[in-house]
DNA sequence: GATCGAATCGTACGCTGTACGAGTAGTCAC
DNA sequence: GTGACTACTCGTACAGCGTACGATTCGATC
């Protein structure tokens, strides 16, 4: 019986052993690994979106057969989980670990979070539905610690975290999906012109076309932080 | 050449003509119609989620062949669009059309919006990615009008609308997906216990388990409204 | 050489959305 | 009646999907 490795699947990644792949010919693919699978999956997701990721295509791109993937990965869902978390690494605020400016630290982390997801527009809509990987948990832990340091009581901590999470997720999902379909939006706005008696206000303000996404995000974030944490 | 009706597809629904179905025997299904398709699709989505809606199953449940659906509907995507919009009808705030309490009106509409989506947990994650139907546009128009009445300037209007939209969407998507997987959350929280040195803060606060979703939603909404619209 | 585990992959299966075109029933003109 | 036209239904078929299964290959160890 040959059982797949489950817990220690990424054995190869953590060791410092010399890769045996280097001994192969120059025109042969390196061996499969979790890392190669995940980075290639991210490439394909960036190129073709969530629905555009196919296991066969992923294998093709890696120079292997489709079923070889399943030695390293349980199923397609796990590919999503790994790709998602891999994209959300955070290196912390630039200057220091124990900055006095907790508000700046929170804003930096959340804006970086949003930016990371917008760089990979498939990631935002995936995030709420998938398992929490170490990078996601790391961000939550950092957020939690920073708010705690800022004086948010334990009783309010969870409410504050989830409010911020909700806001970031919602803003990014909307932004990303509207980004993907500029033509659709223009068409929808155009269609509204024919219905101006039904939707006069949103037609006049050209709601669907002209938006300051970044500014709106920052504005709402400020308001939330004003309310959630005591002023300094 | 037999072309499908495109614009006037729902002819049967708007007329007051007597339904010819009543002349049939009691044990035969009523004829297909957009309405029946949509309401049945909503039932199936409620029961099995987004991935659980299959065209064949939908047709079975309607007592017809799978391909008959395609006379009334272009493709499966349109079924999603119609089901989504059908679930988001809004009848307005209870008391009056021109209430003095604009803040109460906005909160009522947004909390009703969230409640409607939570009643159909598949709807929230669908909303940002799909076309805007008349009910969705109606809500946006109402929100727009109310904020305008409350004194929000034209320049700030779009920013305010999108901030609120983002917040509602994010809160509801998160809530709905966490709702769907209570066991997963418990398991994830349990797993965190084994990693308490890495994630001490969110482990101690039991972030993944114990949350006051409704309270957090209302709190954040209040903060946003405080900032977005002038105090009354 | 024999053995064994790790890793690869060809084949096949069940399921999906839907293109195609045949078939049916009702209506209207003559 | 009869033929034409429209509205609608649906059986069949097809390509593409995730992946179960089992055969195969390769390198290390005894």
UniProtKB/TrEMBL annotation, chains A, B:
Keyword RNA-binding annotated: no
Region annotation (Disordered) ranges: 1-33
PROSITE patterns associated with the record: HTH_TETR_2 (PS50977)
Domain HTH tetR-type span(s) in chain numbering: 31-91
DNA-binding region: 54-73
Compositional bias ranges of the Basic residues kind: 1-12
Role, per record: TetR is the repressor of the tetracycline resistance element; its N-terminal region forms a helix-turn-helix structure and binds DNA. Binding of tetracycline to TetR reduces the repressor affinity for the tetracycline resistance gene (tetA) promoter operator sites.
Name of protein: TetR/AcrR family transcriptional regulator C-terminal domain-containing protein
Provenance organism: Microvirga terrestris
Lineage: Bacteria, Pseudomonadati, Pseudomonadota, Alphaproteobacteria, Hyphomicrobiales
